[in-house]
Amino acid sequence: MANPISAPVSPVFLPLQILLIAIDLLISLLTFGWINVLKTVTKPKPMRSVPVADVFSHRVKPECKGNLATVPMSGAKTLYEVFEKSLAEYGPSVCMRSRTFVGWKTKKIKEFGPDITDYTFSEVGEKAHKFGAALAATGCVASDPVATLEKVTTPCRIAIFENTCAEWMISALGAFSQSIGVVTVYATLGIDSVAEAVVDNSITAIVCNKTNVEYLVENAKNMPCLKTIIYTSDLIGETMKVDLPTNIPSGLTISSFEDFVESGDSAKYPVVPPPAESAAVIMYTSGSTGKPKGVVVKHSAMVSSIANVDLDKDLNLDETSSFVGYLPLAHIFELMYEFVCLSSGASICYADPKSLTATGAFPAGALEVFAPTHMVAVPKIWDTIKKAIVSKVAISPPVAQVLVNTALQWRAFAITIGLDTPLFNALVFKKFKKVLGGNVVHAISGGGPLNGDVQNFVSVAFGFPLVQGYGLTETCAALTLQSQDDLRNGVAGSPVSCVEVRLDSTPEICDKAGLAYLNTDRKDVDGNDVWGRGEVMVKGAAISSGYYRMPDKTKEVFVADGWFATGDIGQFLDDGSIRIVDRKKNLVKLKSGEYVALEKMEMVYGNSAFVDAISGGICCYGDGEMDRCIALLQIAKPASMLWAKSTGMISGEEKEGDWEKVKNSKELYDHVMANFKHEHGSSDLSHLEKLQAVVFLDSPWTPENGCLTAANKLQRRKVIEDFAKEFEEVKQKGIF
């Protein structure tokens, strides 16, 4: 593992480092840690996937060959049935938890009260059934027994236009109890896209936040089918005044979530269980590569994805587990994991990304308050957590820096041989664990490629293996998942139990050595043994039906015999795991005719301390007019100012004008470029993927301004559009 924190490298500290490691090793040996070492070094290398027939580039989980998972052990065939069975088994257990939001402590810090609202499974069930009955009373009807990609003309779907919260999931469960589908929409799509989704799906009822009621009423003329607005008060503080509009169009009813639930008559409108092949969710993508697509997902597909839990020994979810839910429920990653929690009896603790830690919440962050056992996050969250720790340690005394570095480097080695680090656990890692609440035992990174240094750092610093998962909305988040005993970085994992995966040759796309990706390859570009390379294709019950009202788009990727084309370029490693090495849509051909991978470049350069992940990170760019790539980046102020003080550019306390002086200096620019050169040299990027020039920005990219999606993925076109002047200037430096 590379040196994770910039610490003084001095012979003075060498005896201290040797002494600490020796004491730690002695304690491990005296407490029989050597037994674990023997088990680890003698454990045979597992085969994580096996060929289907004699085709080595077409593989499946070993225990699922010829028998892919389709339903969980409970036998549930729909999402409603999943919850119904959990309701019977875990009724008195806590199902959902929410903190009381007081208001804004400062412009960036939310204040929460001491009270936590807990709902048991039984209470959630009662609310959901009443909500469903209230929907039926408004005229909503059951969906067609079989999901269709054609326009629906009956009010058989509701829209949920709200942040992740308990009311979101209760609304969805309520809709399913009446065989009503759920359309997920969110603010970053823009009101035109929201209105289009409402009209396209003949929606008569929508759930939203109270702050967005006026937004919807003002645009009601564009949504003539909309009859009922149900609003929640999520993140509306006790002292915050949000008025409802008074000029309400005729035929439109507005109700609070609580009143709507209370109006539901479960006796008059009993449960109408949904058929397995009916549409559960129409999930609109963020549209980062074009117009948002509505992915039609059947109940059977979602349940197939949930079935993986029964065969995943690593996950270890039960009624004693807790999960922090904060990613957008309008995205498949969060939605699937929350249903996994519901099926396992685990409690879901609701939060939002900016109040996870004390940097955005008072008096404490959600992680500290809820102390979850399970957590999922997108790469940007893990990167932010790593940089926050690194920055804090970097300004600590030299001895503390050496202690942390020694702990990280020693543990990075120790875990590879199955050894614990008891001394460093007490001195360093116990404090680190508190950042995530102290109880996390299982964590997944998904939604995009994770930088290897970040994966290593988190795994070592927090004492649990941070594993990668790989999936898409179209696969119900199910495709591959890394095992906890797999300590490699950059590995997407092996096929999960409900899918089979094959690689299709892409002779038109080449690697950095100029060789085409072929499914007959037995070596990758670095000489490693592989079982084929090519576009990742996936098949199984978890595959969605297609794109709503987009037959041409559906035909492009939902191909013959039930296969879905992901657009990702992968390779099977020698143990049957998959590594994603490129993405067709992110491969850009430069003037030379050779390809570069922009997303991979962003992952590598984003590891630099000078890239501010919280404000959006880095946006790399290249095209057919250019000889080399350039980038726009959010420059990290803390790292830049720390560097400026170390060089004497500024001294003492920061004064007005110091930041502008540092940010615009040639010295900082040259230092950042040298830092990027180091990041490039430590990676497997090609020479063409070395950045030629960059431009510093300090106006954050956010989902609110459209530069990021709701899942914090970069909207490259929007960034370039919003910073056109800076982009055009730096682009010229990439043309020789």
Features:
736 residues; alpha/beta; Rossmann fold; GMP Synthetase, Chain A, domain 3; 8-stranded mixed sheet; 6-stranded antiparallel sheet; 23 helices; 33% helix; 21% strand; disordered N terminus
Helix content class: 25-40%
Question: Describe the biggest sheet?
Answer: 8 strands, mixed
Which structural category fits the helices and strands? alpha/beta
| Low-confidence regions | 1-8
| Number of extended strands | 31
Strand portion = 15-25%
For the biggest β-sheet, the strand order reads: 9-8-7-5-6-10-11-24
Q: What would you note in describing this structure?
A:
This protein has 736 residues and is of the alpha/beta class. Among the domains are: 1-44 and 378-438, no CATH class; 121-314, ANL, N-terminal domain (Rossmann fold); 590-734, GMP Synthetase, Chain A, domain 3. It is 33% helix and 21% strand. The chain is built from 23 helices and 31 strands. The chain has an eight-stranded mixed β-sheet, sandwiched between helices. Strands 1-2-20-23-25-26 form a six-stranded antiparallel β-sheet, with no helix packed on it. A hairpin with a 5-residue loop joins strand 27 (587-589) and strand 28. Helix 3 runs parallel beside helix 11. The longest helix has 18 residues, at 121-138. The radius of gyration is 26 Å and the shape is globular. The two termini are 37 Å apart. The model is unreliable at 1-8 (pLDDT under 50).
